[in-house]
Design goal:
The structure holds 2 protein chains of 2 kinds. Chain A has 15 helices and 9 strands. Chain A has helices spanning 55-59, 64-71, 79-94, 100-128, 133-153, 175-198, 201-207, 215-220, 226-229, 237-240, 261-283, 337-343, 345-349, 354-364, 368-372; strands at 3-5, 11-19, 31-37, 40-47, 162-163, 166-167, 304-311, 316-323, 331-335. In chain A, strands 1-2-3-4 form a 4-stranded antiparallel β-sheet. By secondary structure, chain B is α/β, with parallel strands linked by helices. Chain B has a domain at 3-90: Beta Polymerase, domain 2. Chain B has 3 helices and 7 strands, in the order H-E-E-H-E-E-E-E-H-E. In chain B, helix 3 links the parallel strand 6 (94-96) and strand 7 (119-121). The longest helix of chain B has 12 residues, at 105-116. The radius of gyration of chain B is 16 Å and the shape is globular. Chain B starts with a helix and ends in a 32-residue tail after the last strand. Chains A and B meet through helix 8, strand 7, strand 8, strand 9 and helix 12 of A and strand 3 and helix 3 of B.
């Protein structure tokens, strides 16, 4: 153990401390092994696997319809987008023509999911740095979205609304009206978020200049989503590889260049505005048509390899399927955004204080089942 | 760069590379294990290829061989490439780590080590990442058996 003599009376030494697996700031069962000297962090080593379920192995024995259900349980806050990722991979492999109606509805629900996820993140972010009110505000607005999902999908969290070939059922007759009401409501609430937290001087002092990630490191560590974009790395899958109806809408990629915790915060706030704009562009123009095209009861993908990227609320989710022509994939890999984003935590936390680590982790927006899979 | 010019450029680096586009939306190149690190280094640092983003690293058990699949993208040129390598050695498979080229490989290689037992040389911290250190066997291998935890249909 290294011993540093400060002066004749005081000396400091490094020691280990456990953060988690039940620490509130780790947002789930993640254990961090911290090496600290006083309050300065020397090393952060994540200990993973507390809720590892080996979804990839389960996929090797399941049918493609069943696999969709498992993806809900990875990043549960982006459940719908995860479902969409698997469905898109299967549909592309089968070269299915998906009706425009399905694409538009998928995009609307995907963007609403993103807002809902960011609402929860915003509430928890505030709570992590000591502002409990944000938690209630975030959950209040998220409830409205959950109600809309419940009416259309039948579930509030793990929706399972997408199936290979389209949607499980058509949207509820109230859907369009309720989504419009939500947009009107939420546009008055987002400035409230800013007044409460964004402009708060204590919050800014906690987050500005903390946990800085450079653009080069962001790319090298495979950062994606708001974490990458806050470092000036243009990595929005919706821009670079548009899927569903995202090629029909105009939106700005939220980019910042500071790369610090506050920048990651601002990127997510901006993304909520952009998602509202995407939903607004589509909600009045949902095309008529089928909500699903028929697929065979037993789906067999042609022999080959298929890769599909989507942008979840956390970043780039990749689905990589190797098929040998059977009813289950030979190998299925989920490239989850949280796993790569966690890998850079040590890099940006070293040299900071434990309090900074909490603020930094809050803006990485980790969902542990997404990391553990 | 188009797939064809990529293939011409990369193919000139070594005679032992095998290219294919069959059954995949990307250009695939299979690299012998012993040449992997050299080729990967060039792929990232060559001005024309500039593959700076490793967006997926997958371990695969091909039955006879164990392999790793690397999905690469260039954030400058937005072209992609899939690099594959495999080893017939199942008892003691060894592949060079690309951690020094892309930092994201550190965690991803640990995952592959955990589930496939592939050892990555020069990896800074190669140990199991999800499973406990005393876990027996490598669960994502095709010949893995666990009568207690696995439901066989």
């Amino acid at each position: 153990m290294e011993t540093v003599t400060l002066n004749s009376n005081f000396k400091s030494e490094e020691y280990f401390i456990n953060m988690g697996p039940q620490h509130p700031a780790t947002h789930g069962v993640l254990r961090l092994l911290l090496t600290i000297d006083g309050e300065i962090i020397k090393k952060v080593e994540p200990d993973l696997g507390y809720i590892h379920r080996s979804i990839e192995k389960m996929c090797e024995r399941d049918s493609y319809q069943q696999i969709v259900h498992l993806t809900d349980r990875m990043d549960y806050l982006s459940a719908n987008i995860n479902n969409e990722a698997v469905c898109l991979t299967v549909e592309n492999a089968l070269q299915l023509e998906i009706p425009e109606r399905v694409k538009v509805i998928r995009t609307i629900i995907g963007e609403l999911t993103r807002i809902s996820s960011h609402c929860l993140w915003w509430g928890v972010m505030g709570m992590d740095v000591g502002a409990l009110t944000t938690y209630f505000y975030g959950f209040r607005d998220r409830e409205l979205l959950n109600d809309i999902f419940e009416e259309t999908c039948g579930a509030r969290l793990t929706m399972n609304y997408n199936v290979p070939g389209g949607l499980m059922f058509d949207i509820h007759p109230n859907f369009v009206k309720r989504v419009k009401d939500f947009i009107t409501h939420f546009k008055t609430k987002l400035p409230e978020y800013d007044r409460l937290l964004t402009d708060n001087i204590i919050f800014q002092k906690r987050t500005k200049g903390v946990g800085i990630l450079s653009k080069e490191d962001a790319i090298s560590y495979g950062a994606s989503g708001p974490v990458g974009r806050a470092s000036g790395y243009s990595c929005d899958v919706r821009k670079h590889h548009p899927y569903s109806a995202l090629d029909k809408v105009t939106f700005n990629e939220a980019l910042r260049t500071e790369g610090d915790t506050y920048a990651r915060y601002l990127v997510r706030i901006k993304e909520m505005w952009e998602s509202l704009s995407i939903v607004e562009q589509l909600i009045d123009n949902i095309p008529e048509g089928e909500y699903r095209v028929a697929t065979k009861a037993v789906i067999k993908l042609p022999k080959g390899e298929y890769f599909q990227k989507v942008e979840t609320a956390r970043g780039e989710l990749g689905v990589y399927i190797i098929s040998t022509g059977l009813k289950s994939p030979y190998r299925l890999k989920f490239r989850s955004p949280g796993f790569s984003n966690l890998s850079l935590l040590n890099h940006i936390a070293v040299g900071g204080k434990i309090g900074d680590l909490v603020a930094t982790m809050a803006t990485l927006d980790l969902v542990i089942p997404d990391i553990d899979r | 760069m188009t797939n064809q010019s990529l293939q011409e450029l990369i193919g000139s680096w070594s005679p032992n590379l095998v290219f294919t586009e069959e059954g995949s939306q990307y250009l695939n190149v299979t690299v012998p294990v012993e040449e992997l690190h050299d080729i990967m280094f060039k792929l990232k640092h060559n001005d024309q290829t500039s593959f700076d983003y490793l967006f997926c690293l997958t371990g695969v058990d091909w039955g006879e061989e164990l392999g790793v699949v690397y999905h690469l993208e260039s954030t400058d040129f937005r072209h992609s490439l899939v690099v594959k390598t495999q080893t017939a050695e199942r008892e003691n498979p060894v592949i060079a780590s690309v951690y020094d080229i892309w930092a994201t490989a550190e965690f991803h290689e640990r995952e592959v080590f955990d589930f496939f037992g592939i050892e990555f040389t020069n990896h800074p911290n190669l140990k199991r990442i999800f499973l406990t250190d005393d876990w027996d066997g490598f669960p994502l291998r095709k010949d893995y058996e666990d009568n207690i935890n696995m439901i066989i249909k």
